[in-house]
Predict the 3D structure of the following.
Amino acid sequence: MTSSVQAQQKVSMQRATGAFALIDSLKRHGVRYVFGYPGGAILPIYDELYRAEAAGGINHILVRHEQGAAHAADGYARATGEVGVCFGTSGPGATNLVTGIATAAMDSVPMVVITGQVNRAAIGSDAFQETDIFGITLPIVKHSYVVRDPNHMARIVAEAFYIAQSGRPGPVLIDVPKDVGLEEFDYVPVEPGDVRLPGYRPTTKGNPRQITHALRLLRAAKRPLLYVGGGAITAGAHDEIQQLAEYFNIPVTTTLMGKGAFDEHHRLAVGMLGMHGTAYANFAVSECDLLIAVGARFDDRVTGKLDEFASRAKVIHIDIDPAEVGKNRVPEVPIVGDVRQVLQTLLQRLQEDGHAVDHDRTAAWCDRIERWRQDYPLVVPTYTDMLAPQEVIVELGRQAPHAFYTTDVGQHQMWSAQFLKNGPRRWISSAGLGTMGFGMPAAMGAKVGRPDDEVICISGDASFQMNLQELGTLAQYGIHVKTVIINNGWQGMVRQWQQAFYGERYSSSNMEAGMPDFELLAQAYGVKGILVKSRDELRRRVAEMLAYDGPVLMDVRVRRDENCYPMVAPGKANSQMIGLPKPVSQAQEIGVVACGACGTQNPSNHTFCPNCGAKL
């Protein structure tokens, strides 16, 4: 060690505890908010956090359940692009974080999760509230640590932040034994950027030969389609995707995670594809001759029957994770690298080459997609007796077009994905794991991270009850999240599947019995509650909710048996959707027709009754 380094260490060295080193390291990495819940094993860390909060610069948000902490850190990370941080104690505190960790892992969200642990000498003895959270979470973290020596604390925190947000992002776990937090040592800080991990070198630049091959295919394609996933959001590649789409006149479809990566008002946008995607996106992916997958992983909810997904197309696959390239679909052109950097290189090559692009090559293709769009639009039904859930979502989008939207999981999630048009990072939903109870705590984290923006959670009556206790957190800290419950009295998507595939045997999916009065529940927590039962009051009540200076819970009663269409049945190709309306171009006039099975009045261009699923 050189004398200058030794001198620098003497200047920066101080006597401190492991808990101080942890909190100080978090502050050095720009952490402003921590979401958590205290307990015995993590008390040394909370004691140090108490002092740090008093000094300013870091704030703790006390949740009502550790799962809420993990989801809040997740929502914070998705909304801001920063690393989310959450705390939980040992044993049940740590295991309560597991669902949130898995949610973040599936959706590639950067998080640092810090858990308390029993004393080092007690590890392995089945001590009170001991669990091997390191072992439990191995399959659902990007990396994990058990801090055995407080001297390693600063380095571990620095490595954790670097790993969490570099390459393909993901959650990193740091398990801290109680006595490590209490032990004093000569503390030397480690600053962000001072991390060296020789064995971990994510590839960021695309292979030049593969980019050349991709350009050759792009210039030759007559029916190209950009298929954009969450990796584009992570990379911030929104401008590059639009430039590429406009340069070659390529239609763009996005996954559930990719919503917002491309302007959904743009003439080339065809919406979401997959199980509940738009008909025109699913037809397009079935007929394209070149599929450019950008930060997407060919998920089963997107592909349907895999061997028929884009079966007529050559594939260019751009992704930073080499494990995803070729995992489900072998591409003709695999390009491993940061999505934004790869697209920037590709666009630069186009400028250098100077070749003019013949937009007429794809004009017929774009016209064909436009005809599908006109023939098979997303339909917002209007019923005389009850609100349709789609009406509620459309009204939210009309009055709050630039809000950050979080969702829970189920029918309301799919309707929201279909009808909301979101900007970058303004769509936050549990896509890979499909976690009920995600929406409100994620909205809480998003609002903490983006305090000047409107944040709206769209939930279902079943999903909301998974983490309803976080109303207390919203009330305590005055976090102005607006939560809208699309209330049909069911586990809606479960009911739809039971209707379609299980002979209408509605086993344990009806939620009416035992449902709380959500308006009174909100008031009990000190949150404004609103109940909406009719179309006449919807617009006014949404405006009232948005204007209110504080958190709001709005319970909207909607038609109980509405189904989410279009739908690709399991094992079917994307082109084989059920619930499509008859093509508008083939209908003389859209009127009303009664269902022969249940008598429900439906628009005459529907093929299936949304009430009972019978063919009209």
In short: Residues 360-375 form the longest helix (16 residues). The CA atoms of residues 144 and 507 lie 40 Å apart. The mean pLDDT is 94. The chain has three domains: 12-187, 208-375, 396-557.
